[in-house]
Amino acid sequence: xxxxxxxxxxxxxxxxxxxxxxxxxxxxxxxxxxxxxxxxxxxxxxxxxxxxxxxxxxxxxxxxxxxxxxxxxxxxxxxxxxxxxxxxxxxxxxxxxxxxxxxxxxxxxxxxxxxxxxxxxxxxxxx
Length: 127
Hints:
Order of helices and strands: HHHHH
Radius of gyration: 21 Å
Strand content: under 5%
Structural class: mainly alpha
Shape: elongated
Number of helices: 5
Oligomer: single chain
Mean pLDDT: 84
Largest sheet: none
C-alpha cells in the first residue's frame, strides 16, 4: 500500500472517529436531559403508565445505540493505533497475513481481516 492510500485511509478513520464522537455527544446530551425540561411539566414523572413504558423504551433504545457506537469507536481507535504504531502492518490480515484489498479498507477502514478470513469467521459463528 502506498503513502497516498495510507493518507486517504487515515483521513477516513479520522472522519469516522469525529462522526462517532459527535453522535455519542448527542446521546450524552439526551441522557442528561430530563423529562421535565423536554415537555415543560413541573414533574419529571409521566402521569400515565403507557407514557412511562414509552419513556423507558426510548431510553433503552438510546442506551443500545450509544453502546453500539461506543464499540464502533473502539474499533476505529484500534485501527488508528495500528496505522500510527506499525504502518507497514496496517492493511494486512490478522489471520493469514495477506494484504487486505484497498477497496475493502476504503469501505471499512477499521477492517482487521481479509474477505476470505472474514467469511470463514462468519461461517463459524453461524454453526
